[in-house]
Amino acid sequence: VKSLVWGILLLTMVVFLFAILFTQSVTAYRMERGDGEIAYNSDTPELERYWSTVPRSMGTLFMSVTGGISWIEVVMPLSDLGALSVLLFVGYVAFVQLAVLNVLTGVFCQNAIDSAQHDQELVTQAILHEKHAYTQRLINIFNELDGDGSGAITFEELEKYLHDERVQAYFHSLELDVSDVRAFFELLDMEAGDNIQAQEFVSCCLRLKGGAKGVDLAKLMHDQSQLSLRMDDFMEFATKALCYLSGQEPPKHGSSLYD
Predict the structure, then answer these.
(1) Per-residue pLDDT reduced to its tens digit, 86-107
(2) Hey, which residues does 197 pair with through a beta bridge?
(3) pTM, to two decimals
(4) Which of 68, 126, 231, 253 meets the CB 3.0–4.6 Å disulfide criterion with 63?
(5) Is pLDDT of 220 > 60?
């Protein structure tokens, strides 16, 4: 809004200054034709219509750069004043179109970019705030699960806690599927130590939140590809070992022992 106001003021000042110049020139021309008085005759109706007063001149100049009126309609009457008035009008149009309006456009574009960047920062802050709040809720759940205060939870503690339907609904609101308690516990127990630490519980719940993501599927495909390559290498090694033990010639690469 502030940039819009300053832009309108800048354009108004430019139009006002040029309007004074044209009005003075036209008034002097009409006074010349009237022997010291302004001539109100019908042979200069276009000058009276477009350039006789400052407000009319401002309206004419504004319409000239915004497509409200054809240039030929307003510049032809000025040609009676001389080539200087015509050149001044052309210079005004060029200055406003190439300088003033482009500057205003640049200001608005920059404001739009700054606003978009500010929106991105707000979105980032909102995501971080949501993650912090979600982590705090998980920590509170862990503290409730850890009834003996040992700093770790066991399968029995988790199973007892998840028997309550309200607790299951609460986990569902956190986008965590706890329909299979044993599978959920094993997914949380990454170290297979039959108990889950607080940090392990929080990090795994964050990873299990919601459905499978694209990165999860990509990682699964990558692990499957690596496992397939290792299996191929192992089968090739085992085939060569069996051939060596049986005294047979090892098969060529890509062929089977039983081919």
Answers:
(1) 999 999 999 888 888 888 888 7
(2) 152
(3) 0.44
(4) 68
(5) yes
Please provide the DSSP assignment of the chain as one string: -HHHHHHHHHHHHHHHHHHHHHHHHHHHHHHHHTTTS----TT-HHHHHHHSSHHHHHHHHHHHHHTSS-HHHHHHHHTTT-HHHHHHHHHHHHHIIIIIHHHHHHHHHHHHHHHHHHHHHHHHHHHHHHHHHHHHHHHHHHHHH-TT-SSEE-HHHHHHHHTSHHHHHHHHHTT---SSHHHHHHHH-TT-SSSEEHHHHHHHHHHHSSS--HHHHHHHHHHHHHHHHHHHHHHHHHHHHHHHHHTPPPPPTT--TT-
Is residue 35 predicted with pLDDT exceeding 60? no
d(CA 37, CA 32): 8
Q: Which amino acid is at 179?
A: S
User: Both tokens of residue 157?
Assistant: 């503690």
